[in-house]
Specification:
The chain is built from 6 helices and 4 strands. By secondary structure, it is an alpha+beta fold. The chain has a single domain, classed as 3-Layer(aba) Sandwich (NADH Oxidase), CATH 3.40.109. It starts with 6 loop residues before the first helix and ends in an 8-residue tail after the last helix. The relative contact order is 0.23.
C-alpha cells in the first residue's frame, strides 16, 4: 500500500489509469474502497445509489464495448458501475435539481481516493451507452447509470494533467469571470 503524508499528497498522486495488470484485487482492498463510497455524505443522507461490482471477464469486455469501445477497461480485473436511484434522491437542490449527480460525484470520489491510497488505479468513465450498460448488468429502467470505473493495479503511471490556476476558478465576494 502506498503511504501518504497528508491528504493533498493523495489528491496529487491520484491519476486516471488506462492500463492495468491482470492481478486480482484482494477482497480486503475492494471492501475498503466500497466502504469509502458507503460513508460518503449525500443530501438529506438519502444515499440514492447502488454499486454493481463486476469481476466476470466476459461482462467486463462487454462493458468496455458499451463504454464507447474503451478497450483498456477490459484489462482491469474489476469494473464498478455506479447507479443512481433518482426517485430516492433529494429532488430540489437549489430549488431546481436532483441531488443524485452531486451525491454520486462525492461518493465516487471517496472510492477513487481510497483506491489510490490502497495502491489501486481507477478512471472515472462518463463516456458510455447507458442502455447497453443497463442491458449487460440487468439494471432496472427507473435506475440511472451515472458512471463506471475500472479498479485494478496500474500497469503504468497515469499521465499528469494540468490544472487551471486558482485565479481562473476562484472569485471573492461576487462572481467575476
Amino acid at each position: 500500500m502506498t503511504k501518504f503524508t497528508c491528504f493533498m499528497d493523495l489528491v496529487e498522486k491520484r491519476k486516471s489509469i488506462r492500463s492495468y495488470k491482470p492481478d486480482e484485487v484482494e477482497e480486503e482492498k475492494l471492501n475498503y474502497i466500497l466502504q469509502a463510497f458507503r460513508r460518503a455524505p449525500s443530501a438529506k443522507n438519502l444515499q440514492p445509489w447502488k454499486l454493481v461490482v463486476v469481476k466476470n471477464k466476459s461482462m467486463i469486455n462487454d462493458l468496455a464495448i458499451a463504454c464507447n469501445n474503451q478497450m483498456f477497461l477490459a484489462e482491469a480485473p474489476i469494473i464498478i458501475a455506479v447507479c443512481a436511484k433518482e426517485d430516492e434522491a433529494y429532488g430540489v437542490m437549489g430549488g431546481y435539481m436532483s441531488s443524485y449527480p452531486i451525491d454520486i460525484g462525492i461518493a465516487l470520489e471517496h472510492l477513487i481516493l481510497a483506491a489510490a491510497e490502497q495502491g489501486l488505479g481507477t478512471c472515472w468513465i462518463g463516456a458510455f451507452k447507458e442502455k447497453l450498460v443497463k442491458d449487460i448488468l440487468k439494471i432496472p429502467e427507473n435506475v440511472r447509470v451515472a458512471a463506471l470505473t475500472p479498479v485494478g493495479y496500474p500497469a503504468g503511471e497515469g499521465s499528469a494533467r494540468g490544472r487551471k490556476p486558482l485565479s481562473e476558478i476562484v472569485s471573492y465576494e461576487r462572481y467575476i469571470d
